[in-house]
Design brief:
Blueprint (H helix, E strand, L loop, with lengths): L1 H23 L1 E7 L5 H15 L3 E7 L2 H14 L5 E4 L3 H8 L17 H4 L12 E14 H7 L7 H14 L3 E3 L7 H11 L1 H4 L2 H9 L7 H13 L12 H9 L3 E7 L3 H7 L4 E4 L11 E12 L6 H11 L2 H10 L4 E2 L10 H12 L1 E3 L14 H14 L4 H13 L7
Parallel strand pairs: 1-2, 1-3, 5-6, 8-10
Antiparallel strand pairs: 3-8, 4-6, 4-7, 4-8, 4-9
Helix pairs in contact: 2-15, 8-17, 11-17, 11-18, 17-18
Length: 418
């Protein structure tokens, strides 16, 4: 009888301990617009994290991209948002921080692995507070059809003169549209056009910060010259480029009808899936061989902490892991074309992604010139550059006229702090 009682008590005690242990397991959730990333988080990232923190259950709850901002803001206002918030860059996330929805992450372990450019999209204007852990950037450049280059007998250009010589030869050959880009959607002309090539003219961060500080103007030569280069693209875009949409451009390239695609690295996964030819990438050409080069290595996505989370300790543990080499390697390889913003040396399996990221060792990184601060007023500088890029390509205005219009619009509402 005593043995029976002892066994019963012991079993009850073990069950109680198990119940306490189960109760102590904490669940934290991630809000995100990246519905395409669901399997990456579920099958790769979260299981890796749980190898070292089995007591923290993590759930990834994405919302459709077009609905994310509205849905998230409603959740934040009602106090029902998840523990972690996937952050868009600059003003969107900054507004959430200013409203008290995102917590300051100053001093968080792991943030030391990111440089100032990487953190710029999620840092307050005064530089005093960071509120999201940087996850990934996208890089601009040109993706090309290797088979087409071989057929035409051209090689990857390094200088602008070589770039236009390649375009001339492809056009003369007649079997390929030299450049797959249209102007119908406007943003494409700016993102794949102006923001792609401009950093080599305005010297990346040096020029971008000079505009913010008011020590440079959009009428300066380094800001109008990219429009002059875009004007030369017109002859290589193919018939009907004015009505050509972004999906049209993607299809022209992946179907093998165009030789070069002015690109963002986010195209890699889709192009790998849809193109049946070998591809390579080259960075925006410089004026002369040996010139210092600059690339748009644009901050794209980060992860922050809901200021009202009931689980701040566990959330910070996870966010610190997001700053680790393990996270960087998994995410960058699972999402080719979305590159870790950390200083870790991440080996990539995707050849095309490796082409893009190799430019970081050769060139200076910057972000899109209008992204920080300069989009807050009316007219919005970013959308103004969209229209200006289209006007340059179509030949509707001169580069000088475009620069003057952009500066006048900026002067309408922006006064540099300095």
């Amino acid at each position: 009888m005593k043995n029976f009682l002892f066994t019963t008590v012991a079993a009850t005690t073990l069950l109680s301990i198990s119940a306490v242990a189960a109760a102590e397991k904490v669940t934290i959730t991630i809000e995100s617009w990246r519905t395409d990333d669901l399997s990456i988080w579920r099958d790769q990232l979260i299981p890796e994290f749980n190898k070292i923190h089995p007591d923290i259950e993590v759930k990834f709850n994405p919302t459709a991209p077009t609905e994310y901002n509205a849905a998230l803001n409603a959740k934040l206002d009602s106090g029902t948002a998840g523990d972690m918030i996937t952050c868009r860059p600059f003003d969107n996330a900054l507004a959430q921080y200013d409203a008290g929805h995102l917590a300051s992450l100053n001093g968080l372990d792991g943030l030391e692995n990111f440089g100032p450019v990487a953190k710029s999209a999620w840092t307050t204007d005064d530089g005093n507070d960071i509120f999201c852990v940087p996850m990934a950037s996208v890089i601009h450049g040109f993706i090309y059809n290797k088979d087409a280059f071989a057929e035409v007998g051209v090689s990857v250009p390094e200088t602008r003169a070589e770039f236009f010589a390649v375009l001339d030869k492809i056009k003369a050959d007649g079997n390929y549209i030299p450049l797959a880009m249209g102007t119908n959607d406007q943003w494409e002309a700016a993102t794949m056009g102006y923001y792609n090539i401009a950093p080599n003219y305005h010297k990346g961060e040096e020029g971008r910060l000079a505009i913010i500080a008011g020590t440079a103007k959009l009428t300066d030569a380094e800001w109008t010259a990219p429009f002059a280069e875009l004007a030369k693209w017109k002859d290589y875009l193919g018939d009907g480029f004015e009505a050509q949409t972004y999906p049209d451009s993607q299809n022209l390239f992946t179907l093998g009808r165009a030789a070069i695609y002015p690109a963002g690295s986010w195209e890699i996964a889709g192009f790998d899936a849809n193109a049946d030819f070998a591809m390579g990438a080259f960075r925006p050409p410089v004026a002369n061989k040996g010139d210092e080069c600059y690339i748009s290595d644009h901050t794209d996505i980060a992860l922050g902490m809901n200021a009202n989370t009931a689980n701040p300790v566990e959330t910070k543990i996870f966010l610190s892991w997001v700053g680790s080499a393990e996270f960087a390697a998994i995410y960058a390889n699972a999402s080719p074309g979305f590159f870790s913003l950390s200083d870790h040396n991440v080996k990539l399996d995707n050849a095309l992604a490796s082409d893009f990221v190799s430019w970081r060792a050769e060139c200076n990184s910057t972000i899109r010139a209008s992204a920080q601060i300069l989009t807050r007023g009316t007219p919005n500088l970013d959308t103004e550059i969209w229209g200006a890029s289209v006007a340059a390509i179509k030949g509707l205005s001169t580069p000088a006229e475009l620069g003057a219009k952009l500066q006048k619009g900026l002067d309408n509402w922006y006064t540099p702090a300095n």
